[in-house]
Amino acid sequence: MTVRIGLIGAGGMGRAHLARIHDDLAGAQVVAVTDVVNDAARCAAEPCGAKVCDNSSDLINDPEVDAIVIATFGKVHAPDVLKCIEAGKYVLCEKPLATTAQDCLDIMAAEGKAGKKLVTVGFMRRFDSAYNEMKTILDRGANGEALLVHNRHRNPSVPESYTSRMAIDDTAIHEIDTMRWLLGEEITEVRIDRPKLTQRRFDHLIDPVVVVMRTESGVLIDDEVNVNLEYGYSIECELVMENAAVRLGDQEKIHIRDIHGDRNAMCQSHIDRFQGAFNAEVQSWINAVAVDEHTGSTTWDGYAATAVVEAAVESLDNDGRTVTVDLVERPSLYR
Ligand code: ISE
Fold first, then answer.
1. For 16-31, how does the pLDDT look when each residue is reduced to its tens digit (9 = 90+)?
2. Does the predicted TM-score (pTM) go above 0.85?
């Protein structure tokens, strides 16, 4: 079966997903595209022979669309995810699932009513081979328990429209989800530390920040979010256990040795750095949809991450005080 996909959002992320489905992955075809900017939808759709829909409702309810990929801004995800659930169609929604915990709970209620997991949140790092190796080493247990995790999330620059809240709900949310997945436990408290601010930032932006989190069992996690660090897109993670420390390779790039030194080429964006993880994530979703199954992170994961984001934003707005993360009871659908 070829899964017929409808794409909502033809910006950078949407076009990257369309290209990978068209060129690199098997078992699916993008048959419809919509975007608030109609020309953007047309430019993306035409080369792969997809149709353009006037709006997301038409695309979701189109009988020729089996499943939906949402790659719009976080703020507008929730209504479209709810429409997909109502139509009984699987949806791969880019992170964040929604920008408020309440919107995530509304999605959870709708999915509960449908009695079936239909929503996958685009937390692609769960499909990154190095993070998976790290998790396998931890889960094997031979090195004792996790004690600490150090993360660095650096971007070369961000547009003027990027806000201090986005440093958490658009950027740090990757570490928030990855840490929950890696350690297999929830985050219970969070605070934001503010180092000296960089002069490279736009005035309205607090940058860098350090997100400090603690989990149920007491693991301490720090995450440097630094989005104007010129040199490139760089993700680091070191997990400290009782008998060993394991560190992620930073770049998915070749190693160069020349007269200037011995170094890695540098990624400039997440699309570049996590190409392998994105491909694995979307292929696994296509394979699952084809056999009417769910894969990847769930609405619960989207909710838990957004609840941590809300607590972190509260800390940011209150001089970095520690804020407790309160989660509702996990419904049986997600146990
Ligand atoms: C972007 O949306 C991402 O997902 C990237 O991984 C992150 O590094 C960037 O800061 C976000 O804006």
1. 999 999 999 999 999 9
2. yes
